[in-house]
Amino acid sequence: MLIGPLYILSLGLSAGLVGVLGRHVLAGLGYVPGFSAGLMLAAGIACGFAALQLLYVALLRLLKPTHSGVPWFAETLSNAGAAFLVPYLLGMDLPLPPRVPEKLEVFLFVGAFAVVHGFFKLVSFFGATKARPSERVASLIWFAACGFAVLGCVLAMGTWHQALTASHAAARSAEEMVHVGKACITARRVRENAFTTIDLTGRQGNDVLLGWLAPEGDREKGREVYVTLRPDLPDAAVRQEVVPLDRDGWAILRLAGDSLPMEAERCTVMWSTERQPAWVTEMGLQPAEESEREMLLWGPRFPLPRDRAKTPGIIVLLVEGLGAEQVGFQGYNRKTTPRLDAFADRALVFENAYTMAPEGAAVVWSVMTGLSPLAHGYLNGHRGVLPEEVVMLAEVFRRRGYLTAAFTEGEEPGEPDLYWGGGLERGFDWFDPAYPVERTRGKLRPGAAGPRRHGGSRHTLNRARAWAQAHGGDPFLMAIRLSELRTPVARGRYGRGYMGQQVNPRAIDIHDTAIRNVDEQIGRFLDEIAKIPDSERWSILIAGTHGLDFTEPGRGTWRRDGPGIPALSESGLHVPLLLRVPGKKAARRPEMVSLDSLMPTILDLGGVELPQATRGRNLLERHFAADPVAVTGSPLKIALRSRKWLFTWNTGLNPRNGERLGAPGQGVVFDVERYRANLAQIPQVTHSKGLAATFRGRLTEYLGAFFEVDNRTVVKGP
Prior knowledge:
Mean pLDDT: 84
Oligomer: single chain
Low-confidence stretches: 442-451
Radius of gyration: 38 Å
Structural class: alpha+beta
Shape: elongated
């Protein structure tokens, strides 16, 4: 009879068509990385279909063996139903109604095939039950054929799966610095359907945060992506999350701490614009990397639960060029800082706080490391070489589970300092070094610095506020440096202020007017963040990095008509320091402190231990700290501030390596009480050479911690 060979031929053709259809559909979903892989996929599906048909025939011959040709004829017609798939494979379209999605078209063709195939399967079954019985031995042949088909399916599908997995080997997943608006962050560029492995070690049951952002130019309104997460455990469930993208910023995917197995150390992440079917994710399949679309992936981060954070929010605001002599709550006769004065009424006010250097960038580095500028090396505009063992403040907090952000104004045109790549970014999730620039037209006002000037602290504070609003629900550390007061410059947005109608206003009048404007911007910032839920539990630290000395050379302290300069003087070193801590009563603290105590204090607010030795002490504890020391210049000039005296000394040393550049000076001792009483700055050294020698000895011992100092040469002086 020809019916047997005809059945085999129809089975081969129908299996081939089903295999081609499966390959076509999976290729559209991105699961076919190349021609060879597609051929193996089609062969595997065809063998699988054939195995099912042969298994049915084998079971039928085992249960109802017959000599009749009716079942064979019906099986042949059931396979012939695959002809309904041909129009779809040839690209022929059905005249569907406008509202019917095109994706449903394949189901219509497959449905027609299934109906015909199923109908003739029933015919073959009933034909076998009504025909004359025969022997069952022939069923063994069909079982054997089924086994060969299964083997072919396994081999072909295995080859396809290997090719699919290998197609992701070159996927880019290394972290790199990327610009997002004005900020710089460390993130991965991840292509659609590409494997990316993230590290889950150290999460300790905390939530997992993953940030997603489409590159600029590819941000569609209302767009969403599907993120698949597969932990590295054999029996772990695969998750698929929907992430609505934010056109203007990061879309944060938050996974509850118990949503991923605690034992998982790594997790494979993939994103796609199409939802992956459940059977695909459960089988561990991953589309081939054919799309050129990319997303930025930030994280993972494991934020500490707020109830486990000693202080859920810490803001450190450093204002460059703001000295204690020019703020109201320190006794200034001008109302330059009404907003800071109001803040001081509910904060700890350290009346005798001193900086480590009359240089903003150096102070920021000292606050972030707890080290002297001589140790971290960022001094006099030079970039130091930070020892690898030094741990940054932000690194400690990020390990603790805090989100971290910095706004530094470090990319000043022509004079960048706190920029990305300089090292300060270590440990910060979000690093914004943007310098707000104000472009001027026409003739400049008197005292203007040039065509590119500071555009206002409000820009930096607004970005910091937006970040706090977006991330204030998790414990965070935020550092802000404002540089607008670094150089007194008259600006139209300040108004006339203390300059009045002067044609050529004094530098101090310009500066006081600028302080009033910056004070207002800080006040608005404080008002806005106070609206954020739970912000009353945040700690806020505000300090000047250094002041400016306006004393007219040779005329004494009562004539403050000179240009404002950073200097090792009482005006340059004495800075305001305010600290608001929830639960701490407002108070005036008269003890002498240094800004190198900020790092230990901030760490205590976060419940974190000191990562390295520091000269500073926790300001929240009552203690007698070491007398403040400040450094600047090359040759190195150094100052020591005791309770009554300010001693300044030119050491003649290179501040970077301690080498001798010149002969050391004898040093000058100033009576601070006389200075504050508006008396002349009379050097007291002629009356107390022994006092100067004592101070030189103390500072020589201090320098010995950084350089190999010859005490006899350095202390003696000329």
